């Protein structure tokens, strides 16, 4: 990182104010709709807008909803404004700070069901409010702040984040410039299903990695492997590096080495010849959709599995059959990989899910949605203890749930933070009466809505879903389930995986043969692998480890008459 050059100095004007306040002006020609995020920082190594995070090391943020506001009037941050980590402006210490604000612009969405919502659209950046094209912001300014002062701090957001389209961050530009374009393609696909749901054109991005010899074997048809992950502008599983790493590069050659090794293995015939795809599916609630059909996020499961994948298989000569598809991913991608296999059991022939997001809501991170009365504290007869949210591998707690929920509330109300807890709520919840996701946990009190939990249980608790449907689902999952997680997972995700394993070990007719691997003391995101290698070494060659396993299983289970030869040259 480079040291921040302070671009401006705030003008402090003494006025008669009833409380400490900050006024933020945004030059505009029409009413303002969106959410202001104001950040106080002590760290000058980066801009304040890049320093909000969910643990105790975060800078200080404040959030304000703005609805049809006259741009001639300032947006006010005062003692009543909710903050994080400190709860209000009055809780800040007097002193010198660097301050910056970003206005996350909302757009009006007219949903198919008649609801009208104000939401932050993805603008190609993967739902990062602090770098979203079109969002007004200001240069960082130095201020002396005193919560007891009657002085008003005035800021003007006179800059606008530029568009990504046509820049090197644009996936289409990346694909065109990539030296490995012979193998790596990019598709921008309009989804009819999603466009209908959202009332506007919705596109999916898809990176398609073609096998070695694709052009030289025009009659070959290939299995398909779907990699699940968060939004990346480029290809997701590993850096696609077509040149040897520079040992003198900043940070060393390690990551470049992994990417170049993957490129070499892929293009030399050392790996099974398959088509691998990575889908970009950022949406108004998050950088990823969780690839299921959802009342709030929309029919992403159907759009990806019934529209996009058939399109790719037809264009790039996929075999187009369930025995010849597999999926893998970690964290969000781990949940997606498992959910995809479970909800589409005939369409996929294996999943390798690492450090998956909660697969059983008894372990909603460290919250038991079914038995906890509150998501922030557990109480005894005479005492109480906060519920931890994030930890280091040694067990040290770095964030509690109450702070994390307030962090997201500062970034957006009504489930619009575009962060982790809110996307789970958006994906798993029914739509509320106001059109926004029904609230499962009150972000300021921790109260759990058990009626919403029941909806989650019926639709998206993967363990409960498998138990309920095991008689018909179990035979379709034989040989297909592979899970790995660190037992020191940063977000306690190992708890739910253990619950799932106990349930599957108790199954009969058939008895589940799901495979589980745990990394003692390993954090997020452990992907398994040989114990003689470090977690980082195993993660660096994860595709090389799982692809042969996938194809071996495909060949063992291919139906009679299936094409098992054209792609094995």
TrEMBL record:
Keyword Signal on entry: yes
Keyword Transit peptide part of the UniProt annotation: no
Top-rank taxon: Bacteria
Keywords per UniProt: Signal
Cleaved signal peptide residues: 1-19
Protein's name according to its UniProt entry: Esterase
Annotated source species: Silvibacterium dinghuense
